[in-house]
From TrEMBL:
<dbReference type="GO" id="GO:0071669">
    <property type="term" value="P:plant-type cell wall organization or biogenesis"/>
</dbReference>
<dbReference type="GO" id="GO:0052691">
    <property type="term" value="F:UDP-arabinopyranose mutase activity"/>
</dbReference>
<dbReference type="GO" id="GO:0005829">
    <property type="term" value="C:cytosol"/>
</dbReference>
<comment type="function">
    <text>Probable UDP-L-arabinose mutase involved in the biosynthesis of cell wall non-cellulosic polysaccharides.</text>
</comment>
<dbReference type="GO" id="GO:0005794">
    <property type="term" value="C:Golgi apparatus"/>
</dbReference>
<dbReference type="GO" id="GO:0071555">
    <property type="term" value="P:cell wall organization"/>
</dbReference>
<keyword id="KW-0325">Glycoprotein</keyword>
<keyword id="KW-0961">Cell wall biogenesis/degradation</keyword>
<protein>
    <recommendedName>
        <fullName>UDP-arabinopyranose mutase</fullName>
        <ecNumber>5.4.99.30</ecNumber>
    </recommendedName>
</protein>
<keyword id="KW-0413">Isomerase</keyword>
<dbReference type="InterPro" id="IPR004901">
    <property type="entry name" value="RGP"/>
</dbReference>
<dbReference type="Pfam" id="PF03214">
    <property type="entry name" value="RGP"/>
</dbReference>
<dbReference type="InterPro" id="IPR029044">
    <property type="entry name" value="Nucleotide-diphossugar_trans"/>
</dbReference>
<dbReference type="GO" id="GO:0033356">
    <property type="term" value="P:UDP-L-arabinose metabolic process"/>
</dbReference>
<feature type="glycosylation site" description="N-linked (Glc...) arginine">
    <location>
        <position position="149"/>
    </location>
</feature>
<feature type="site" description="Required for activity">
    <location>
        <position position="149"/>
    </location>
</feature>
<keyword id="KW-0333">Golgi apparatus</keyword>
Length: 358
């Protein structure tokens, strides 16, 4: 009798899930997630018991655990916001991370087949990226595709892929104003494409269906200060996305977006979202030009060095926008210190041979 194939990267990947509720949604994901280790980060009231379906291998951290593990440095981990998920990135000991929200279900491709989102993310991460020259057939490493005529042969080897950014069917990831004017809009378009985001181009990263190589970019995957006690929310993943993109561009790493899709089941309240977002909507008109102009020195040869340099520039340039950014810059430094304490062997991540190629 034939044995089932071993799942890809079974012992090299953790699935990180932030939640405030019982994880019944895992039943739908069981065929794809059960072989992997889960790190569950419980937000909100730590006295509440979160139920996890039987048969999953997991560890669960609540706010008390975060305070116990990090001590005073726990101040850098957001409370009452899904940004708390980045604590899971920090305590993981695996090379790869996949993170998903608890309102995301298994989507179906146009043929009606269930999409194994995790498997597609892994394929994306294990294939190179092409950030320096755009291929008009999108990802040239997929079956049935290749580099088109005119693509430089010197660039066809590609670069390591640090991040795989997946998409969503059903409820789109819209901001509150767009939600308010398009309350019934649903994404039904399945686009069978994966592409590398070009060097020098920022993007709005969504954390609900995201995978990354923790060894290549993990220390930069900080989801900022959001939620309780902070003047802003729902910009946690985007802040991380802007930081990682600047660092990936500097260190010669790739970021892919496109497949896989998940089914986003629940629209959040647009009025609540507007309250969380309104300062961010205003501030992002200054944040985007800031990140577009960030210059990292040749001395920034590791993710940690790059991230500390960005934190200094945040304080120097964005501190004038609002004092919140001074707090955020300090938290960025605290995050790196905590990361290095929990990850001593890889505390100073290897310098990349093609680093600092600004």
């Amino acid at each position: 009798m034939a044995t089932a194939p071993t799942p890809l990267l079974k012992d090299e990947l953790d699935i990180v899930i932030p939640t405030i509720r019982n994880l019944d949604f895992l039943e739908m994901w069981r065929p794809f997630f059960q072989p992997y280790h889960l790190i569950i980060v419980q937000d909100g009231d730590p006295s509440k018991t979160i139920k996890v379906p039987d048969g999953f291998d997991y560890e669960l951290y609540n706010r008390n655990d975060i305070n116990r593990v990090l001590g005073p440095k726990a101040s850098c981990i957001s409370f009452k916001d899904s940004a708390c998920r980045c604590f899971g990135y920090m305590v993981s000991k695996k090379k790869y991370i996949y993170t998903i929200d608890d309102d995301c279900f298994v989507a179906k491709d146009p043929s009606g087949k269930d999409i194994n989102a995790l498997e597609q993310h892994i394929k994306n991460l294990l294939c190179p990226s092409t950030p320096f020259f755009f291929n008009t057939l999108y990802d040239p490493y997929r079956d049935g595709a290749d580099f088109v005529r005119g693509y430089p042969f010197s660039l066809r080897e590609g670069v390591p892929t640090a991040v795989s950014h997946g998409l969503w069917l059903n409820i789109p990831d819209y901001d509150a104003p767009t939600q308010l004017v398009k309350p019934l809009e649903r994404n039904t378009r399945y686009v069978d494409a994966i592409m590398t985001i070009p060097k020098g181009t920022l993007f709005p990263m969504c954390g609900m269906n995201l995978a990354f190589n923790r060894e290549l970019i993990g220390p930069a995957m900080y989801f900022g200060l959001m939620g309780d006690g902070q003047p802003i929310g729902r910009y946690d993943d985007m802040w991380a996305g802007w930081c990682i993109k600047v660092i990936c561009d500097h260190l010669g790493l790739g970021v892919k977006t496109g497949l896989p899709y998940i089914w986003h089941s629940k629209a959040s309240n647009p009025f609540v979202n507007l309250k969380k977002e309104y300062k961010g909507i205003y501030w992002q008109e200054e944040l985007i030009p800031f990140f577009q102009s960030v210059a990292l020195s040749k001395d920034c040869t590791t993710v940690q060095k790059c991230y500390i340099e960005i934190s200094k520039q945040v304080k120097a340039k964005l501190g004038k926008v609002d004092d919140y950014f001074n707090k955020l810059a300090d938290a960025m430094v605290t995050w790196i210190e905590a990361w290095d304490e929990l990850n001593p062997s890889g505390a100073k991540s290897a310098e990349l041979p093609n680093g600092a190629t600004k």
